[in-house]
Amino acid sequence: MKHPFQLILSTGNLLFTATKNELYVFDLKSGNKIGEWIDTFDSTETIKEKVKKEQERQLKENESKKSKTESLEEDEPTKKKRKSNNSEPKIPTPGEGAPTIYNYIRSLKLSNDEKSLIIITDSDKSGIVFKLDLSNKNNGNILKLIKRQPFPKRPNVIVTSNDDSEIVMGDKFGDVYKIQINDPELKKLDSESDPLLGHVSMLTDLIVTKQDNDQEFIITTDRDEHIRISKFPSSFIIDKFLFGHESFISNIVIPKFNNNQLLISGGGDNFITLWNWVKGEELDRFQLDDLIKPHLNELHLTPSRFQNEENNLKEYCVSKIVALEKINSIAVLIESTNQLFIIKISDNFQKLELDKSIQFDSNIVTITASYEKVFVGLDNDSNLLTSIDIETREIDQSNDIINKVQENYSVEVNSRDEFYPLYTTYQLRKRSEH
Amino acid sequence: RAHSNPFSDHRLEYPISPNHMDWSKFYPYYYDEINNKMNKQVTIADIGCGFGGLMVDLSPEFPNNLILGMEIRVQVTNYVEDRIIALRQQNLNNDSTNYQNINVIRGNAMKFLPNFFQKSQLEKIFFCFPDPHFKQRKHKARIVTNTLLSEYAYVLKEGGIIYTITDVLDLHEWMVKHLDQHPLFERLDEVFEKNDKCVEIMTYSTEEGKKVERNKGQKYIKCYKRLPNP
After folding, report:
1. Can you say where the WD repeats lie in this chain (chain A) (predicted)?
2. Would you call B11 an interface residue with chain A, using a CB distance cutoff of 8 Å?
């Protein structure tokens, strides 16, 4: 059986997909595969390096301790000879029952000019920039790797600056870095002095944008309900916060309509919020409970430690919001459900209003939107991908291109047990102990 | 417990935004019941206030300011609460502020300071004998870092002052280095330190300060002014 797509991204002509450590590009005119890249980086090497460094540090520490104690008690015989000072560092292997370690591609983003693809790899905590080489010189592979920049902590989200000259990356530790794309040298980043800005919380999403007057901003969200707006690149100046969320934020979107002034945010709350981020105003809240409650399933049951006596407590979260520029709307995905909500931004961009909810045969893993289509990645062994026409908001029936894409996609697994995680947003929920 | 991990999800109470904060419970004396609003707002914050010694001494010196201590450890916070209740009781008939202008809240300032205070609300922020977090990989847990200073700058008004004091030289050098590097702060000189009454109170009145005094330890002090945004 085929492994469902973990991430998809479309420009209209191209469809990028990521599954495990494999990245593919499909031509949406023919359905042909026109690009691929597989992350073959062996993470044991970096672990080895780390172990070695730690070993050296400990040896040094022991030495200095020893010299201190020796100066005090000089006739103490050195009972224990150090066993192996120059032994090869051992790679720690996870014991039985340890959770599986997944090395997959965590994010797919396009540059603003849509000429580059930026991804995050788990294996070496890198941000990678590919130039899209449509000239077909590269053996029919349009992906040309031009930069692989490792970061000190695991990256979570990556974008390019407004002029596409830099990548801007946020990590699980809450810090944000920026790196010149065209600088051939790889930077050795220092988590103490190099961050552009930082939250004391996991960074969950970020957007770099600008206003009509060319003032640039960076908007960062975290697991502690914050949406922070700072100037860019002088990010030490915090302009404002957008307060209102009561649970983690997973996604923010700034649609291009209405001069980039609108922002929609969602996450662990039972609502999504429409803001005018320039004015710092909350414009509307769209409640999700009534819409989604009939469609929740056993995947939404609260973990047993936090469950109620009847064992029927369910939780849900927004895992993806995309802008549908053509119809002044957004598409909203609640994790582990088979429903997609099309929500219109109506009333002169003041209100969120349900346009349509679209039901699928199986749960939706992820979505992406081009100007004309919404592409939907499904948790299904025979039908992994489908599309919706934005004009009609109907599922495209008998779509040859989509079928061709699926034929040309061949990440095979033996059973569902071999799937990489498809639903991960719920893990952001806070479970405070004391 | 002497320490608390600032990164973990403690069961904390914090307002959704500064507008959601009900200060009347903390400073009932300054609550205007007729107009249903506070007639003063907090302008001095003691981050990691410990047992509250600094606030107790600041209270009569700043009768026109509300002073808030933030402390992450539950038991310590409870102690300071009780201490303030007792002080208010004992001084009911005094002419001074009767300690009505100080209070404490359990909170994680490193995560939620902007939830409590509006932009440019504060005049002074104190960091007195903060946890040194000696280990290299724990440095992000320190209360002064490049990235957190931007949040302190956000809640401080122009000309507002950050006070730091510690008995750990390594931590002092760390704080000075990061404050020096930050574009929104300017170091204040020794003349300021000599003439500022807060510096004197901070040096001698906190429990930690007294302990260092007894042990004849060194105290390192530096103060910084919030510059206007460039």
Report:
1. 242-285
2. yes
Question: CA-nearest residue of chain B to A198?
Answer: B147
Q: Which of A230, A245, A431 sits opposite B9 (nearest CB)?
A: A431
Give the closest of A199, A237, A243 to B17, CB-based. A243
Q: Can you give the residue ranges of every domain in chain B? A: 18-226
Nearest to residue A150, comparing CAs of A136, A169, A137, A172?
A169
Asked if B17's CB is within 8 angstroms of A434's CB, the reply is no
CB pairs under 8 A between A and B: 78
- Spatial strand order in the sheet of A105-110: A105-110, A116-121, A126-132, A143-150
Which residues from chain A sit within 8 angstroms of residue B108, using beta carbons?
A: 200
ipTM: 0.94
**Of A198, A240, A433, Cβ closest to residue B119:** A240
Nearest CA in chain B to A430: B9
Let me know if A141 is exposed, middle or buried by CB neighbors in 10 A (0-12, 13-18, 19+).
Answer: middle
Contacts of B19 in chain A (CB under 8 A): 243
CATH, domain A7-38+104-428, list 2.40.40.20, 2.130.10.10, 3.90.79.10, 3.40.640.10: 2.130.10.10
pLDDT in single tens digits along all 434 residues of chain A? 999 999 999 998 999 999 999 999 999 999 999 999 999 987 777 777 778 888 888 888 788 777 766 665 554 444 444 555 556 667 777 777 777 778 899 999 999 999 999 999 988 999 999 999 988 666 789 999 999 999 999 999 999 999 999 999 999 999 999 999 999 888 889 888 789 999 999 999 999 999 988 999 999 999 999 999 999 999 999 999 999 999 999 999 999 988 999 999 999 999 999 999 999 999 999 999 999 999 999 999 999 888 999 999 999 999 999 999 999 999 999 999 999 999 999 999 999 999 999 999 999 999 999 999 999 999 998 899 999 999 999 999 878 999 999 999 999 999 999 999 999 999 999 986 64
Return the CATH fold of B18-226: Rossmann fold (3.40.50)
Beta-carbon contacts of A282 under 8 Å, excluding residues fewer than 6 positions away, are: A242, A244, A273, A274, A275
Domain boundaries, chain A: 7-38+104-428
d(C-alpha B40, C-alpha B32), whole Å: 9
Q: Spell out which residues of chain A touch residue B115, defining contact as CB-CB under 8 Å.
A: 243
